[in-house]
Amino acid sequence: MGGLECITFDAAGAQVVASTLPDWLIVGLSPKLSIDWSFLHRQFGRRGIAGGAALWGAQALAPGEYLDTVGKGKMLWLPADIARRGPTADETLVGLVDMCIKALTSGRRVLTEVSGGFDSAVVASALGAIPSSREGPDLINYHTEEIEGDERAYARLVADRTGLNLIERRKPEFAFDEASLREFSGAVGPAIWGVDARYDRDVADQCRALGADAILSGKGGDSVFFQMPTPMVFADRLRSRGLASLTEPILPSVARWTRRSVWSVLGSALFCDVTGRRVSDHPWLSEISDLPPGKRLHLRSLTQCLSFAGPSRRASAAHFIHPLLAQPVVEHCLSRPSFELTQGRRDRAYARTCFEARLPPEIAWRHGKGDATAHFGRAVAAHLQFLRSYLLEGLLATQGVLDRRRLERSLSLDRLIWSGGAGDVLQAAAMEGWARGWERRLRTSA
Fold first, then answer.
1. What integer is the mean pLDDT of 83-111?
2. What is d(CA 404, CA 407) in angstroms, rounded to the nearest whole number?
């Protein structure tokens, strides 16, 4: 499922295969690599869709891909094949999550990030259900000074239900500096998850203080369990049941969920894109035109989760595990149609029903969750002087990856207050740091 990157390139008469590209490897082999600016241009704004390596001369294999000795790739495992297969196994979702977490944490001291939302609560509940783990694991929750980013009340409910110890930490203030942004340039692509350096370091420090050698998160659950409110859920049911679906409760239920009229949902379902246009260069999304539109959306969202495996200070301090992205859990949910995963009425309804008995009702059927948007927006606003210089005079702007004029308009206090956009700025900063790091490394090894 992409938990470990696989990068290959030719150098010194050999084919090199590696999971990272450290300085000693680049200096020692001097491979013919260069930054692929067109790749970065395609990536910007996508929030994680990965189509390969951001370097000319290197190839990043997709999860499930086999590469032969002459460099020809073949997909041996495709999530679309699982979606076509349909449900076949008798395992329950709860049983699969428990099995995967037990296997992934066996013999480890675990620290689990609990946000207060549904997905991380599912992970904590499974961890608490493992009898041998009750003395070891700890939960950790970070809260911001903004009230919408303070989820401690919900994290305490999870701790009370699971019986696990909860550590509450004030999230460190976000700070930008060039050295931190360039720190993870050894990756095949920009390290998005290391951009919040102070928070990243604090989690790593907590791991070292506790002796934890594994960090668990609920990342990926919103994609795997199907969080996206979309009329395509009814489109899938219409394709499955035909006109009989018009008499079922699912049509008005989807309309209420998506806050659209029944006629709007019906129109979207009847005239949605049925050609399955290729939305990414990623092999997982190359042959999905025969799948229902809701399932295509499911696959696209799942592909975005591949960015979670990128480098970070947390991942350097302990094994960073996203158990809801374990292959058995993913296959179980992929094999089920979107209208079953949502029960035609709300996000993650199937998973909520499965885990209802384990979770506090305030979390099992909670609408919404905390939001750190204001926190990050305030951080960007506080560092506008640095960011304007760093980005407007940076490599991405020079190479045309970013539109300098548009970026200059975005990097203003008024625009951030009224239009937002802090997420794009954070992504641009991470990409700029990666590009500067690689330019230095390639210049040094030349």
1. 91
2. 5
Q: Where does residue 367 rank: exposed (0-12), middle (13-18), buried (19+ CB within 10 A)?
A: exposed
Indicate the pairing of strand 138-143 with strand 110-113.
parallel
400's tokens: 């045309």
Q: Considering the chain, what percentage of its residues have pLDDT values greater than 70?
A: 95
368: left (phi over 0), alpha (psi -120 to 50) or beta: left
Rounded Cα gap, residues 248 and 243, in angstroms: 10
Residues sharing a CB contact under 8 Å with residue 267, sequence separation 6 or more, in sequence order: none
Phi/psi at 85 (5° precision)? -65, -40
Q: Would you state the structure tokens that stand for residue 190, as one six-digit string?
A: 């920009």
By the 8 A CB rule, do 11 and 29 touch?
Answer: yes
Q: Indicate the residue type of 333.
A: C
Token pair, residue 396, equals: 């991405």
Element (H, E) at 40: helix 37-43
What is the rounded distance in angstroms from the CA atom of residue 63 to the CA atom of residue 186?
A: 20
- Give the separation between CA 29 and CA 157, rounded to whole angstroms: 53
> Which helix (H) or strand (E) is 142 found in, with range?
strand 138-143
344: left (phi over 0), alpha (psi -120 to 50) or beta: left
Please give the backbone phi and psi of residue 55, each rounded to the nearest 5 degrees, phi first: -130, 130
| DSSP state, residue 76 | S
- pLDDT tens-digit map of 321-375: 999 999 999 999 999 999 999 999 999 999 999 999 999 999 999 887 777 777 8
Tell me how far apart the alpha carbons of residues 135 and 333 are, in angstroms, rounded to a whole number. Answer: 31
Q: What's the mean pLDDT in 226-234? A: 95
Using alpha carbons, list the distances in angstroms from residue 144 to 1, 34, 149, 237.
Answer: 32, 40, 5, 41
What the block records as the tokens of 332 is: 């179980």
Q: Are 306 and 50 in contact (CB under 8 A)?
A: yes
Q: Report d(CA 78, CA 89) in Å as an integer.
A: 18
Q: Kindly state the DSSP code that residue 296 receives in the 8-state scheme.
A: H
Q: Are 206 and 140 in contact (CB under 8 A)?
A: yes
Collapsed DSSP state (helix, strand, coil) of residue 428: helix
> Residue 215 CB: number of other CB atoms within 10 A?
24
Closest CA to 9 of 28, 31, 37: 31
